[in-house]
Structures are given as structure tokens and as C-alpha cells.
Fold these 2 entries.
Entry 1:
Amino acid sequence: MVKIALLGHGVVGTGVVKVIKNKADQLFELTGEQIEVKSVLVRHDYDVDYKEKFIYSFDEILNDEEISIVVEAIGGTEPAYRYVKSALLAGKSVVTSNKELVAKHGFELMNIADEKNINFMFEAAVGGAIPVIHGVRNCLKANKVHSIAGILNGTTNYILTKMIDEKQSFDVALKAAQELGYAEADPSADVDGIDTCRKICILADIIYGNHILPENVYTEGIRNVRIEDVDILKLVGGAIKLLGVAKRTEDNKLFIMTAPHVVFNQGILYAANDVFNAAQLETDNAGLMAFYGRGAGSLPTASAVVNDIVECVCADGTIYPAWEDEKPENVADYKDVPMQFYVNVSDKADKVENAFETAEIIYIKESTAFITEKITENRLNEKLKDFTVNSIVRVL
Ligand code: HSE
């Protein structure tokens, strides 16, 4: 028998209880152990048929020698960080869905797990149900990953889909995302790109091997996405998606950012709508590849959590080594890295043609919209000095 404790009883916590109960036989077959949720740390009671498991003090879990795995589903960094760190120091493996915690403290927590020869697992922290962390850790050992670009936030992808396809207002779409259990407690973390930023940092930590703190990453959310631009881009097979992007630059630095990007209709990033997440990787041997699935919601997230629990139960010591500490000098200034941009200006097309000789003009009506050649953001801003700019969106 393996006894686990669950910290938190929200969208993720309730999903974990359900999946462990519904899959008891399958989990036994996989691990040779009965997996029991012994305790659930809550702040107040809920009307469920396992109320006897509710406890109100983390110390009870910490001091309970029967509990070998702690599942953290509280979210945020306090008290989650304190609890997770104490659990690891006490020799209990930890499984979490908490991207803020991993993005901020992953380096330290993985090192503690390593020292104690136990596990700190967080598949559910990125991409909900999608095994993208396992994929990049386990399945690309024969590859160098040149780049990763992902739709990593279900709430914003859901909101953009509803606003574009069903002409819902932002507020109505956000409310629905909250009711479906997709949004963060403070949904500005979704809408302003903070959640995506945490997730692309975690993926970049794994792929490129150094801890990257979200506060050092340029982050822009979806508040300024204009439906006019979405409609213009549709005419040329483009869509606007909130992406986390990380790649190696020519001088071997890491370029990383979170921002709305134009994607074109030949790939998974264009096709991923609603709460679905997708991550597209360019690698040397495997070439282009993608991961796709539900990025948020109770059971999809619990699916990833429970998979991690199974791995902890079956593990003989630490499975995944920690990444290295920060090396801020290895991170490129995003304004110096050339890329293409979609630009919408109120100026006439001939003015655009004079300033941007190789730009592709895609729309001439009440405004002029064009896609630039590859150019740095610094240079773009210089060139646009005399224009009346309505919007600029990066192109993947
Ligand atoms: N708020 C997050 C999202 C939850 O919408 O993707 C899953 O991490």
C-alpha cells in the first residue's frame, strides 16, 4: 500500500481523488501497490463522501511516516513552496501541477529531491494532460532541440477561440473559462501571459539546461489583440495565438519570450483551438514534431499528476536530474534577435513600400497591413518612427 497526501482540494485536487479512485485496478496492475489518498489538506470542509480524510494542519502530513508521496495542488508559491520543500526534506516525493512554484524554485527543489534520492515531479505544470515534459526529457536524447514554440495556456486559447469564432466578448469568454475550471485564481495571470511565461521557462529549463526566472523574460498577454488584425490575417491563412517561444540564436544564446504571434495554417499551432495546448519543436534528427492535447481542466490535469504518482511509486531513487542554475549572460536581448513582424499602420501602401522594400503587403483598405522581412525589433521601431502604427504582432 502506498499512502499519499493531497494538499488542496480545488479543480486539480478533486480530479486527482477521482482518477485515483476510478483507476484503482489499473494503478495496482501498473505498480503492484494499492494507492490510497490518506489525507487531504483543506482550509474548510467540502460536501464529499471522504470527509474523514480532511485535515487542517500540514504538520500532520509532514510527521506522518506512512505518507511517502505528497501531491501539491494548492497553487501559488506560499504556502506551497514551504510545504513542498519541507516534504522533500522529510524524504517524501512530491508531485505538483504548480507552474509558478516550478518556474521559480524548480532548481532548488529538484536538487533537494536529488540529495534525498527521491522525486520532484511536475508533468501537469505544463500543458495539462500533454506529456510534453516527459517527451522533451525522455524521448529526444538523440536530438538537439533548436526551438520550441507552444500554446501553453488553455484559458487564453479558449478566450481567443470564442472571441474569434463565436464573436463572444472578452468578459463572457473569460467567465466561461473560469466556470470550466481553466483559469487561474487570478485570471490576469492567464490573460497577461504570466502563466505561459512560467511554462515556457520550465520547458526551456529542461531543454537548454539552465534555470530561467520568469521575471527576466519579456511577457505580453492577449489584452491588445485586435479583432481587426485577426480578420485581416484570416484572409492570408494566418491566426494570432499566445505563444511561449524559446530558441537558440546564431551566437548560441537563448532567445525566450511570451507574446501573441501570427501562425500560418500549415501547422498544429494554427489548428489548436479552445482549451487545447500545443507545443511544436524543431530538432536536428527528428525534425519538426509536436505535442497536442487538453491544457487545463480537472481530469486532464489529474491525468498527468497521477502518471507522475505512478512513476514515483515505481522509481528506485531520483529519476530526473536537476537542471543547472541561472546563467543570465546566456540569455539574448530579444530586441536584437531578427524575426518577422505583422504590422498594421494607418499610412498608405506606397509609404510602406518605400520604407520596407521587401515587405509583403497583405491588406490595403482603411489601414495597410504587411509582413516584414526578418528584422530586429530595435530596427523595426526605428523604421516605424514616422508611421501611425495600429498594431505590431510577431510572426513565428
Ligand atoms: N490557467 C491555466 C491554463 C491552467 O488556462 O492553461 C493550466 O495550467
Note: The chain has a mean pLDDT of 97.
Entry 2:
Amino acid sequence: MAEFFTEDRSAEAVNARMGEDANPRLRQVMASLVQHLHAFAKEVELTQKEWDTAIAFLTATGQLCSAERQEFILLSDTLGFSMLVDAINNRRPPGATENTVFGPFYVEGAPIRAMGDNISLDGKGESCIFEGRVLDLDGTPLEGACVDVWCDNADGFYDVQQPDIQPKWNNRGRFVTGPDGSYRYRGVKPVSYPIPDDGPVGQMLAHLGRHPYRPAHMHFKVTAPGHETIITHTFVGDDPYLADDTVFGVKETLVAPFERAEGETAWRSVFNFVMVPLAEGAAR
Ligand code: BEZ
Ligand code: FE
């Protein structure tokens, strides 16, 4: 006879109910989740009131989700979970460009622009030239790589957050490399900004004494045939939030130079992307 539920063996009682035919990976993941969830409640001696508060919080988080707003991803991001899953799934050899959090503001299908084009369409901010090369691990330039970029404007908002204020595709574009693997475009020096904090995740951060800010960064999605996609940012090194990004996205190797040469009116940030060849048979 299956065992009755007891406090001592609560997780075992739940996991014993799984059918023999359940997908083996689902069994493994769910069994571990149940075990850790029960262990957590036991460790903190969770009160009924606390669990009711948690359910209300999760309910509000779900209710805020829409095509434009993904509060659960914000929750995952601010708990460092997005970065953990990303790290587990994107272990790369030394020298390869590291991944970081994707964020909610990517838009598929940005205009393909010519090298050197300006992606800042609202005329705000400090002009900055972004350039570098897309390389293979052995230093070979990659032709036909697509460097898809997006960032906030000088007021700290993405175009999709201000559809009635900013021009469509403001601070976005795709650049396809030629034989020398180089890319080059003009934009604005990114500024730090708060993640959307007018919902339950913002309330959680406030209760925890945490600020909602991300250090200034430029987003990149770099794709090339036969290579692992890189989803990353470059960070502005002197940003006050560099050491405490609210979504834990900063990695030392992603802090890029942002320099203003004497006499030059624009900033310049040079960063090379180093891509890893796809493992035989892999599909990404
Ligand atoms: C972003 O950098 O666009 C971002 C990342 C995580 C949460 C919110 C925003
Ligand atoms: Fe961002």
C-alpha cells in the first residue's frame, strides 16, 4: 500500500505518486523540485500566513503578464535564476565570449543596416561608435555573422516601453559582417536604468532593500552559421551599478572600454565577439 502523508516523509509521499510511464526527465526534475520545495518549507518552518502571502504574490505576478510584460521572467532575473540557467547551458572554453541575461526587450526582425549606420533615431544622448570583429575561437574572422543590437535611449527607456514617444526601432539594428568579420555602427553611450518596478517584483525588491537598477549596457545577439549563438551585453566600466546589477548580469569579461579620444566628439567602444563552433549534431 502506498504510504500516507507525514511531515517527516512528505516529499517521498508526493513523489511516490508519479506514474511509471511519466517521461523520465520529467520524473527526475519534478522529484528534485518537490524534494527541495519541501525541504525549504521545513528549514524555515513556513507559516500559513507566509504561504498565503507567497500565493498572493505569485498570483499577482501571473496576472501582470501579457504580450508586453513578463513579470515571471523579471522574477527569475532578480532572483539570479535566469543567470544560473544561462550559465549551466552556455559553458564555453576560455577566450570565447560569455553569455549574459537576455532580458525582456529584444524584438525579432530589427532592420538590417549598413555598417557605420546610426541606430539612434531620436537624436538624444552622447554619440558612441561601437566596433569590433566577430571571430572564431582560433581568431579567424567570421563572414556572414549577424550582430543584432539593442539598447535603451538616453532617458533609460527601450523603444518598446515608449511606443508613442520613441521612433520604431530606435536604438536597434542588425549588422552582417563581411570577409574581415568586422562590424561598426553609431549609437549612444548607454545609461543605467531601472527594470520595470511598478509590479510585484518591484515590491519584492523594495521589501528586500534592493534597488531595481541595471548598469549601463548594450545588448548583443550574435549569430553565425555553424556557431553557438551568443546572447550578451557589453557594460560601461565606470557605471555606479556595475557591482550590484539587479539581475546579476555583469561578468568581468563583458566590461568593455568606452573611451573618448582627445578632440573626438563621440565615444568609442571596441569589443570583439569570439564564437564557439557548434558541436557535431547540435542544433543551435
Ligand atoms: C534588460 O537588460 O533589458 C533587462 C534584463 C532583465 C530584466 C529587465 C531588463
Ligand atoms: Fe537592457
Note: The mean pLDDT is 95.
